[in-house]
Amino acid sequence: MLNGVAKDLARFGPQSNHKSVPLTEARRYCSRLTHTHYENFAVASLLLPRRLAPHFHAIYAYCRWADDLGDETGGGQQSLALLRWWRDELLECYAGYAKHPVMVALRETIERFQIPQKPFLDLLFAFEQDQLVKAYRTYDQLLAYCQYSANPVGHLVLYLCECFDSDRAALADYICTGLQLANFWQDVARDLDMGRVYLPADDCRRFAYAQTDLTARRYTPAFQELLAFEVGRARDLLHRGMPLLDQVPHDCRADIELFIRGGLAILRKIERIGYNVLAQRPVLGKWDKAVLLTGALLHRLREMLYPEPELRGQRTKIRGQTSDL
After folding, report:
1. What is the pLDDT of residues 161-196, one digit of tens each?
2. Angstrom distances, CA of residue 192 to CA of 141, 284, 295
3. DSSP labels for 122-152?
């Protein structure tokens, strides 16, 4: 168990006797957790409308705790027990009782934006599935997993933007599934270290890449073709979700676009190393992030300068030119 996770569990976990904290302290805890655990989110949060920042931080902290309970506590039954404890904490939060600092902050967010339980519970289902399912036979099975592991995050964002409906949710699903797949293809080697394989077995057979080769981490022309195919799928999903940007409030668009551009940039990084993610994990450097952030800021400025009908055409043209940073 990682030291940071162990310390947080000792302080706020099921065996602790901590008391409920004030909302201001809970918000500080969530903000600190956000900015110290996930640099990419910290960059994206620079574009968040100030009114939404503490609510994004509360949701991220909820997801961070769930992720750590699933991946950093030894796995198996121990992780499952902790995830079930986290579910109980969530249900108590919805019942009006919150003691854990994340739940104290989240309770205010839930009440303010009238967020239902389902997206939060769906995320926990995915983390529990990770303890039990280590490989996927078909792409459809992998998409079904993403329905729980990724898509609820998009729904939560739509609730915070106060524009959730079924049509926007479908577009957000494309984006979130695309981002999840980009993360899988970026982390093939890291997931192997944890005994997990997200490359569908049917796709491996289609490209004649044996499971024994994957276990041995053999980089072959077959693996290159396989990953190129999977990268194309992820990119297609991200592009299919782009119309969502014209259907959310103006002050939320740049932030959502930054995540899309980040996913596309990761896919481009995978391509640039010849798809050899078995030997090297492609990541965005500081310069890459600066370019993405600058592009998103320029788009926000254009939204202020161009009338809406003209803006749509301008933004579509820009995306076509720069979508694969």
Report:
1. 999 999 999 999 999 999 999 999 999 999 999 999
2. 19, 21, 34
3. HHHHHHHHHHH--B-SSHHHHHHHHHHHTHH
Tell me the C-alpha distance between 314 and 253, whole Å. Answer: 14
CATH for the stretch 133-325: 1.10.600.10
The two tokens of residue 10 are: 């000792």
- Structure confidence at residue 228 (pLDDT): 98
Per-domain boundaries in the chain: 1-119, 133-325
First CA to last CA distance, the chain: 36
Can you read off the two tokens belonging to residue 152? 């609820």
Token pair listed for 200: 């569908």
Does the fold of domain 133-325 match that of domain 1-119? yes
Total-model pTM: 0.88
d(CA 3, CA 308): 50
- Asked if 276 contacts 270 with a C-beta cutoff of 8 angstroms, the reply is no
- CATH superfamily, domain 1-119, is Farnesyl Diphosphate Synthase (1.10.600.10)
Q: What is the pLDDT of residue 302?
A: 62
**What gap in Å lies between CA 87 and CA 124, rounded to an integer?**
7
